[in-house]
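Morning run. Coffee first, then this:
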Amino acid sequence: MATQTESVVEVPITKSTKPLEKYIHPPESKQDLKYADLVTIDLSEFDRPGGKEKLAAQLKDAVHEVGFFYVTNFGLTQEQIDRQFAIAKEFFSLPEKERLSFRAPLEEGIYNGYRPLGSIEILPGLRDNIEFYNIMKFLPQYDRTHPDVVRRYWDEIEKFHRHCHEHIAYKLFRLLAIILELPEDQLVDGHRYEAECDSGLRYMCYRARTPEENEKYKHLYSRGHTDNGTITFVFQQPVSALQVKKYDDSEWEYLPIRPGTLSVNVADIMTMLSNGWLKSGVHRVIVPPEDQQHYDRLGLLYFVRPSDRLKLKSVDSPLLRREGYHKDTTDIDIPAPEWTRTRIKKNWTRSPTDLGENVTMGGFKAKVFYE
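And here it is:
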């Protein structure tokens, strides 16, 4: 695995002995918005007799045609989720110079640490309004300096982190394996927590802009894109700004993520492994409705990325063979983490005007932008 270097900047570190401030979510928008209608699965069914097969049947069309779905009863309480939001809020309240001292090695394609505000040009001459802090796996090789608020709640964050990966993601990978008619643990084995990979918990913040700035930015926060890993989880989000494009010819629709619900999207690696049968969910983030535009949009996500045990080649699936998606890729043998890091590196060279720009490796291709 590539060595993860850090930018070392000597700045005073904010330390606090105060208890974590209770996080209060902003109110939902009262405006009439067009919401996407997505499949919802109840993960409490998973361990019941016939439960996995039932859930896989419910998911099959969603992961093939849309790339997004909801999960309920995923084993985390509202209090546990809200405390992660509270940690995120405290981090983003730190002085900018201090946040920058925890910058991730972005040029290496690794999101382990802080990604600064305005890192990407999303329109010609205009920088984005997003910043985030990633915490990668709780393994020795991923350790680095962290802000005091993260170190104070280290054990709590680890428990949350591992639950996302070992309890939610593993179950979803087993459902996808059932759909593809693969051995049940085949996809899990390519994403084991103890293996080398760039999976991570993300605290994310879109900073509010003025109405004049929103006009200049064409009401855009983040260009349409797919995620570069395997699957992505997005926790409760009352500020309406995330939109999905369910089909190539459909309009953008808002994606509500309400309390007790987890939004899950299929990402590029699953599309590659299935030679296009599993759809990588296309999404973007726009300016929130008028009654929410003054809020900084705080987000909590978990990105599942492939380990070095997973090779980037199509799986030999009976389903794919029957439906004409099988592809003989025995001559391609690319460690999957190389793909995700290549996609991240592309962020630093991509053109904000080229909607047709792609990332290609080993015969696999992903579009960088969607309109």
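The two ends are 35 Å apart (CA to CA). Good start to the day.
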